[in-house]
Amino acid sequence: MSKKLALLISAVIFCLCTGCAVNPITGEKRLMMISVQQDFEIGRQYAPEVEKEMGGRIDNKSVQNYIDSVGQRIARVSHKPYWDYHFVALNHKSINAFTLPGGYIFITKGMLKKLTTEAQLAGILAHEIVHVVARHYAAAASRETSESGIMVLAAALSGAKVPAGALRAADLARQIIGLRYSRKDEREADLAGLDYMVAAGYNPYGTIESMKMLEREDAVRPVEFFSTHPDPQNRLVYLRGRIQTRYGTFGGLRIGKEDYRKFVLEPLAKLKDSKKPD
Ligand SMILES: [Zn+2]
Fold it and tell me: Contact at 8 Å (CB) between 134 and 181?
């Protein structure tokens, strides 16, 4: 047997024995210690915890329905259009957006108030959808030690014994939110996110605008989004490059300034300030 063939066979056996998964965006195989089924279970169990930790849902149907409709529109053109996706606007003043395993995507009131168009919102949600589709959190958690919250969770879900007190819901929720993806994964979320939003009919410059907004805000005070995301400068360069080379002509794509004002900014301005600490 040739050395190459032997290597190939051992790679295949390795992948079958451990949790190897294919990234549908790149076709790349990756070691994943958490199954897709576990993703969904973790999301279902911990989404309510995350909501509680982050000030609860914004109590306004118009805002929630609008965020969900923009998110679903993009999710349907993703590589995993038949998964269940949940888009939730949180009543929290931080400027942030993040993802829980299993298609749970959150965006904060602080972030929503700083955006001005539907295309900007689409850019943020598309980026998070890529994290879901490519299961970046599973890759990040698998890279970390077996003590990491998400690994403990996965172990518990598969019936293994975990140390007492290791599953404190609020702590785990915080750990999942704070997972840092690799730079490579963030770049993939940026670029594939651009493809998704254009496929869903949105003007890709929305992403550039939201990135610039985050950069401006970060100069005033540290923006929470950057505690888990790389610096925008670099990202703006490759995003602009991709738009110019791939989407040189994109006349007619949606910006949605008026709708964003009507369905998000106006209802948010009318909301009474939450009494809960945020
Ligand atoms: Zn990201």
Answer: no
> Would the CA dihedral through 206, 208, 209, 210 be positive or negative?
positive
pLDDT in tens, 185-202: 999 999 999 999 999 999
Instruction: Report, in this order, helix, strand and coil percent for the chain, each rounded to 5.
Output: 60, 10, 35
What's the rounded mean pLDDT across residues 123-145? 85
Q: Which residues have beta carbons under 5 A from ligand 1 (an ion)?
A: 186, 189
Provide the whole-model pTM: 0.85
Ligand 1: centre distance to CA 169 (Å): 23
Q: How many whole angstroms separate alpha carbon 88 and alpha carbon 21?
A: 28
To the nearest whole number, what is the mean pLDDT of the chain?
Answer: 83
* C-alpha 113 to ligand 1 mean position (Å): 20
Residue 160, CA distances (Å) to 135, 153, 155, 163 in order:
23, 10, 5, 10
Ligand 1 centroid to Cα of residue 6, in Å, is 37
CA of 235 to the centre of ligand 1 (A): 11
